[in-house]
């Protein structure tokens, strides 16, 4: 029974390994006004490195793969333990195969979620850096409509509050 489980397990891992996420920002930034392409390339490299450090130094794909491997391994161990408890040696092999299969499926979903979160954090750090360097970054469509109509974005206005009291011991 173990021989039939191994090809199935290998196939599931190969399919799960085909999922990839971007290795850089998910949208394009453009050179800022008055910036030449070499300045843009220097800023782009610097900001990619900055964004990578903000997500822990691992690429989004590395984080995805690590999450998938961990969840699949846990599923294999739990499945083997349940199989061994239920049916001995052969049950452990079947349980390990089923645990790896279900752990891989659950792991693919968890890894996709983890990869998506890492990509969002990477994008935020990259766009903040590029904007600080004076380059143009993508703007959500809702904000682009607001700016194209000439309206300034809504800001909160301070209320009509009295000034704070003076600190203790302050002469009046």
Radius of gyration over C-alpha positions, nearest whole angstrom: 26 Å
Helical coverage, percent range: 55-70%
Alpha-carbon distance between the two ends = 89 Å
How many helical elements?
4
Give the topology string: H per helix, E per strand. HHHH
Which term fits the overall shape?
Answer: elongated
Number of strands: 0
- Decide which structural class fits the backbone: mainly alpha
The main β sheet shows up as: none
Low-confidence stretches: 15-20
> What is the strand content?
under 5%
Mean pLDDT: 74
Biased composition (Pro residues): 160-172
Biased composition (Polar residues): 148-157
Region (Disordered): 148-172
Protein name: YMGG-like Gly-zipper
What would your notes on this structure say?
Residues 1-21 form the signal peptide. With 172 residues, the chain is an all-alpha fold. It has a domain at 88-147. The protein contains four helices and no strands. The radius of gyration is 26 Å and the shape is elongated. It starts with a helix and ends in a 24-residue tail after the last helix.
């Amino acid at each position: 029974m173990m021989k039939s489980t191994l090809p199935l397990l290998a196939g599931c891992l190969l399919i799960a390994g085909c999922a990839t996420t971007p290795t850089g920002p998910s949208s394009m930034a453009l050179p800022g006004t008055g910036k030449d392409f070499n300045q843009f390339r220097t800023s782009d490299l610097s900001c990619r490195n900055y964004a990578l450090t903000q997500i822990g130094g691992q690429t989004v794909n590395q984080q995805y793969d690590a999450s998938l491997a961990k969840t699949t391994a846990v599923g294999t161990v739990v499945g083997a333990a349940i199989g061994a408890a239920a049916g001995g040696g052969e049950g452990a092999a079947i349980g390990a195969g089923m645990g790896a299969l279900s752990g891989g499926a659950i792991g693919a979903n968890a890894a996709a979620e983890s990869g998506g979160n890492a990509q969002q954090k990477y994008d935020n750090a990259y766009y903040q850096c590029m904007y600080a360097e004076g380059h143009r970054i993508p703007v959500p469509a809702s904000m682009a409509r607001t700016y194209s109509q000439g309206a300034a974005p809504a800001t909160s206005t301070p209320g009509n509050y009295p000034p704070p009291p003076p600190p203790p011991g302050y002469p009046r």
